[in-house]
Amino acid sequence: xxxxxxxxxxxxxxxxxxxxxxxxxxxxxxxxxxxxxxxxxxxxxxxxxxxxxxxxxxxxxxxxxxxxxxxxxxxxxxxxxxxxxxxxxxxxxx
Length: 94
Fold this sequence. Notes:
DNA polymerase, domain 1
């Protein structure tokens, strides 16, 4: 696949996600797509929210982490968005 030579800074990640990626030596989209989600999750302070954020930004570029498909990622993002809205609804009921 043709991976654009985009620096991680240009993807506008949250501070936490950006710092985690930097600490792991990931400075470009090319570095990112060569990682698996397991590798990212092993970075200190990198959690599910950061993983979703990374998947979302890569999907916008038509890219995925190693070993994932766009279809799979889009389904996961849709499911995550649905459960987030559900949480919001629960909070609004109280």
